[in-house]
Target: BLE2 protein
Amino acid sequence: MAQTSGVEHSVHIIPADGGAGAGEGELVATAERRLNCFVRYVALIERLGNALGTLAFTWATVVLLGGYPTVLRSDNDKNDFWFATIIFFLEAFRMFSRNNRADYKLFFGTRGAFRLLGWNWLVLLIVYFNGVVLCFPLLSPVLFLPLLGILVAIGQFLFPGARRLLARIPLWLRRVISLWSPVIAISLLLGAYVHQYSLSKQQVNENPYQTYFQLRHYKVAICIAYGVLLVVVLLVTVSRMRFAGIIKLADSVLGSKQEFWRRVVLNLCMIGAIVTAAFSFDIIDIWYIPLLMIVVEVSTIVLASFGNFQVPSAVLRVVLPLVRFGSISHDYLCKEDDDMGSHAPAPAPSGGGCNPSIINLTPSLYIFYGMVLGQGALYLVACVVEIFSFIPRRFLIRRGGFKGQWGVDSINLYYSYDLDKCLERNVLAPNISLCKFAIVYLNSDSTKKQLHGIRIAHTLLQREPTRTRLLVKLKASTKTMTRLMRMLHQENQATIRFFAAKVIDELAKSLLVINCPGIVQNVSLLLDWGNNQHKRVNPLLDDTDEEQEQKNDLSVNAIGNRTERGDAVGDSGNLLETQESSTQQIDISNKKNSWITKQWRQVYEFWSIPQEGPLTEQDLLPVIGMSIIESLVTYDQNNCSEISSAANLIRKITRFTRFCRTDTNYTDAEKKVLVHSSLKLLYKLTSIDGEIGITLRHKISQHPFLLRNLSEVLGDITSNCETKKVASGIIRNLAIDASMRLAIGRVQKIITGLMHAFLTPDEPSSSTGASVSHSEEALRKVAGQALAMLAIGNGSNCLAMLRQTGYSFIKELTKLIDDDRYTYRCVAASLLRSVLMHARPDVKETDLKQLSYMVLGRILRADGEELEIFIGLSSHIYEAIPEELAKDFEYGQIKVTFVKRLVDALNANMEPNADCPGIMRVILEQAIELMKYDSSNTVNYFRDLHMIEVLSMVEETILEAENYTIFMGDVGLMEAGEPLSSLVARAKQLLDAH
Model:
């Protein structure tokens, strides 16, 4: 209902899934369509009333008042002239007010014609009756009811800005007024009645017994009733005071439902005071006063329920025609009547004919009053129907995913906006949708409208099909996108900034930076939130004024952090605790099969409003900002160029990788989320391929404290597996660069953490199940990849791994090579290959003997990248223990098969492949080692397989791409030492020498 001051009921429910399916989307569309149809229906009725009223106004001015002002009766009870004049001015006022939308909505809007009385109105009525009780002895009963109606009407119609005036009163004073107003109201009632009681003692009554009974018993009872009400209200008011002792006492007496019981008791006391006031008068001398007071109370409540003049004016339009319909024909006869005497409106012409001035007056009046009656009836129907608008509104609130009091307010605003638009234009015009409404409010200059617009947009983006429609509209509107970007700058509007960031986060999942210039720079501002920590300054560069300014900024920012997060969900806490407490009163534990209980629950669930959940660590502005950047990177790699060129963005992201225990801006849980978000984003940025990826990795590696922060994450036992995994992934990606491999190797804690994750994984937890096991497996894989990357071309890192205490390194790798899991055996083989290449003297031959035959078997079965890795490993094993590998050849009689496998693989990989660019290189290296150790037999095997011709083909197709070990996209990384052409020449030389 319009302009309700009552309480919207709400109950906490489980939030709906953000990615609802097609069925949920249909429900949302149905709810929105029903509300739109309802609005059209109400608007159509009101517009018909407007049209009929305009026609009546024209009829009155042109036909009646313009042509027959002298013939309309105005004597005694025949008041057609005055009735027409009243209707004339009433309709003129309504029509003229339409030129000003605000005035028309205030005085004659269908929405807001009725309003629900709430707690404040009950207190106001009590105060009002204080004046009635005090003034009644001085007033005539004839003046009582008119005065009552006039005061109530003036008070509610002419002071709509009372709330805005109250908002200017200091918060502490408003709380004092709210706290003590019930006590003051009942105190005034008690004082007024005591005063009346003292005056009544001085009056002389003819019946002493009745006077004694009335004064000694009845009035004393009324005083006691007021006194009891005052004591109860005073106790409840004291229990609401914010003192530790009182709070503790109230908790012990009322428990968790204290707020609920306070409101129940106060409401009952206010109602009791109203009822008692009706029987607080002398029932003997003025017997009708109690009945009159009841009528006064009911009429006051009815009058107070009117939101504007629409209903009273409609009632007047209905009453006036009904009063005159029965007597129009009698009052305006066509022929002269002797009974009319001097009251005849005009002399009749000679001959007894009809008076020409009133020939058509009677049907004209019927038409006029009929149109006025129809207009009033239509207005009343529209007002009554509008009362039930809460049904489609509540349906849309629940189906659309709106929560809390802000959701109610937003749908109410949408309803008013939709109704106004339907009244302004053709009723059959295209529908107003929530998406259009959200964009209109987003582009408004009003802060309140912007807040509702951005929150509605955020809600609509949580589910289909509204998500798709709104995304299309937002991205198509440059004005709206610009407005969203500006909202990120509104640091003084915390809630707007927060939801603007959430909306942009959804947009970024399918957004090209080129279509939204400046988005990266604007999102970068979110990463400054709460991160303006005091910096130590070198004494030679210290500036006292700047340092003091930084301290002030830190203090303000620390306060702003807490305030901003509190404000972002402030609306969710505005719902009265009564709703939650009343929910607890419904005990259905023993009535699960009760039909009444089920029906009650369905009604209650429909009426209740889902409450908003509290903010989580994921709702920190820096976390949202990093999520936006990650979405941009994920959607299109072309967005990375803008990210790379953004000033200080990489530095801001990297700064969050440190878990600073001395930072008081965030809690420990928030710090962990920030660390994980920043690491996740850096992992995404370092995984970019191409030239832009090289640039990003170089920028990220330049941060002086990055490696230290990564080592802390790997060594922190409180960090979860997912966080350690992304940290290991960053190290793996940065290790593509040779200089970074060297720098990472100097941080021994990183090597230790990676080896612990790769070689000694934790056992799966039985309490958490497979999900934890999966995350641990992912961490183990990425940690092994990082170790393998660090070992490529870096002997010092290989030695550091071999010399780690607590591990049998080669044996552990051997177990993993024999593992059925593809990734583990490839990673272990690549790592062992690098160790044998750069630190073979530190490897025991006994550890390699059991590995040789296993590797040969893998080569015969493997293909692609795995084949490249195992052939490279076998060549270094053969170089380390040639005799043992020769025995394996002879034992399994697979030498010819092995040589044929090498030649076939060389033929199959003539065309360069970015997945295994070094496969021809490792094949040639393996062939050279075989021919060097067992020259006679092996060379013959190769000759029989036309190795010379194959080498010639390789020599003719050598490309620069085959000199790289790894490719990321189309860019080759990590060049090999010896050129491929040199290996071909050596192989040919060995073949020609024998």
Observations:
- The radius of gyration is 44 Å.
- The beta strands are 74-75, 78-79, 964-968, 971-975.
- The chain has five domains: 25-112+314-337+358-398, 119-305, 511-534+550-572+595-689, 704-843, 851-994.
